[in-house]
Amino acid sequence: MPTKLIPFEPKYSADGHALLSMSGAAREMQCPASVVLGKDIKGKSSDAAKEGSVAHEYIEKALPLAITSAPYDTFNLHKKEYGDKLAILASIPDPEMRQHVTDYLSFIEDLVNDNVSPQDTAITYLIEDQVHITNNRWGTLDFACFIKRERNSQAFIVDFKYGRYPVVAKDNWQLLSYAIALGNVLDWRQEVDITAIIYQPRAGGEVVQKWDFNSTYARQMHSKLMQSERKILKMIDKEIPLEFKAGDHCKFCKAAGVCPELNKVLIAENKRRVELLPNEVASEVSAVSTDILIDIWQKKALITDYLEAIEQTLQERLTQGESVPGLKLVQSKPRRTWKKDITYVQKELSNLGVMEPLKPALKTIGEIERLVGKGKIGHLTELTPGSVVLAAESDLRDAIDTTSPLSMIGVIPTPSTEGND
Fold first, then answer.
1. CA 77/CA 83 separation, integer angstroms
2. Residue 330, exposed/middle/buried by CB under 10 A (0-12, 13-18, 19+)?
3. Among residues 251, 165, 156, 248, which one has the least CA distance to residue 201?
């Protein structure tokens, strides 16, 4: 049955999102000052985020129609407003998105059918519903199914990720926050077994990742989350000093471009380390020690994200009319594309004598496996050796033996002859 959610008064940041988000819980706990620094910044929505929002909109319409065990009134309400599931799926213009949304609906259908028995009568579904822990921390829960029993009550929480950035389910604070919020909504007074799931069809790894825990663990973590919130609110009210901490969590922080801690960690510290080198060798490349190079390389992803954040911040300031010395906004070089009416383009090209304007191409291996199943096309595929890349010592892949001539074939690049003519 659908649930009547507990009303609350959401507190917003400048961009209309939650002051404390579910997705940002891990970052906010590690770097509470990021909330203070970012609360008045209107973050720019990326193309990937917009694409994900579109996929979620179709899911919100179609998923209630896919769950056959949902009560008739819920089904009928959606059917009256949106039609049937197949019609909604057929209306998705992008073939890739249509396939991923279809697969996701099938996954949810199977999840429900495999875990809900005819004897289960107290079932609650949440689909793209707004849930909250406090007025400050709230967000949209993609899917949840709570099966209340006298014993062995179960809850399933699914977060649909349409982006390509891989997310790990285990110890994921966003999933944990949803579980805590769900417990608030449903007033769990008994032990509940929780399965939290990340569904990410485009990240290149496992599409489905599961993490099992229980409501007792969720309550324990709720206490930590509330401690973090109290600390952040004190920082906002200037009762205690700001606490910054740079790390991987900075990637999606909207304040990254103006963060003093990132500047300190990535720019100032390494600049000072190089400046401290002996003057007589400082001009030589070899003067930068391996230790310094390793330290900088280990921050590669963080540096890249930081530079992108700086560029976005400067672009936003110029867009808002602020003068930025030495920089300006320009139009990027236009590129030619075919008009969207492919049928018209084909016809006109045929009139020009082009016999086969469309190039035939095989579907990708992943697309074929979705059609025929895994393990059936091994005899038609082969592994292409990967390129040699740098990796941290903790990486699970075997290190290349640089002392073996055979293993080093193609590893050391041939010196460039450019400029030697």
1. 10
2. exposed
3. 165
- Determine the Cα–Cα distance for residues 292 and 285; give it in Å rounded to an integer: 12
Work out the pLDDT band at 312, boundaries 50, 70, 90.
confident
Closest CA to 52 of 252, 256, 307, 340: 252
Instruction: Show the tokens assigned to 374.
Output: 């895994």
Q: Which of 164, 163, 145 is nearest to 67 (CA)?
A: 145
Poorest-confidence range of 138-147, 162-171, 201-210, 393-402? Answer: 393-402
Q: Map out the domains of the chain as residue ranges.
A: 20-235, 248-319
CA distance linking residue 156 with residue 158, whole number of Å: 7
CA distance 399 to 414: 21
Residue 393 CB neighbour total at 10 angstroms: 6
Q: Which DSSP string do the residues of 288-308 spell out, in sequence order?
A: S-HHHHHHHHHTHHHHHHHHH
Q: Which residues of 44-78 are buried (b: 16+ CB within 10 A; e: fewer)?
A: eeeeeeeebeebbebbbbbbbbbbeebeeebbeeb
Instruction: Compute and round to an integer the Cα radius of gyration of the chain.
Output: 26
Nearest one of 173, 175, 67, 215 to 127, comparing CA atoms: 67
pTM: predicted TM-score of the whole model, two decimal places: 0.73
Antiparallel, parallel or unpaired: β 137-148 and 20-21:
parallel
What percent of the residues of the chain are helix, what percent strand, and what percent coil, each to the nearest 5?
A: 45, 10, 45
The residue behind tokens 């825990």 is 213
Confidence of residue 274 (pLDDT cuts 50, 70, 90): low
